[in-house]
Amino acid sequence: MKKVLVSLLATAAITSLPAQSFIQPNYGLKSHETLIINKVEISQKSTVFYLSVENRRAGGTFCADRNIFLIYPDGSRLKLESSQGIPVCPETHKFKTIGEKLDFTLTFPPLKKGTEWIDLVEDCTDNCFHFYGITLDNELNGNINDAFRMAESDDPVKAMISFIDILKTIDSKNSGAEGLLYVNIVALARTSGNAGQASDWYRKLKNSGAPRLQEYIKFLNDQGIKY
Q1: Does 36 score more than 50 pLDDT?
Q2: Strands 77-79 and 35-42: what pairing?
Q3: Is the bond preceding residue 90 a cis peptide, omega within 30 degrees?
């Protein structure tokens, strides 16, 4: 009887594990300027993305396609199960004013245990959204946020050193944050007036094998950064 009771208690503990939350997780690249991930909540039953988008033009509209996926580092996919607060294309939400925000959620199956980063991709034909390299590691997110705060405090050299230190800790993991770190190191080196260092890190990025490498190279090139 005692063994049965212990077994039941263990089962109850497993099934009652709290959801894991990531508040405004970092990501490498996204498609829509005003589309924001406010939170990702992962439980044994589901993965829920809480997002918002701000309208920037008169007569603006927004919708979500049925074909939205979470893409694992190995390329395998989880398809959207349900959405709330947003119409399914071709139905659209029509914004009434510039600056109006639309909050909505996207629900997917639970992630594989140990997933540290993921891509969120809308697979459609027109004006599709995406987030690449979403970081699902609260410690790493905290370190990256600290580096961004240094950059925002007009201390590009310290911020660059911080990004380099973070890169050293994740470089061997094929992390989704890798491209984000390289891009910021290159940009901060240029901001601090060190073109040679910016060029060196640009070349390191090109040879890095970071996930979605060509997207990051294109992003820098579009900003006029090319060596």
Answers
A1: yes
A2: unpaired
A3: yes
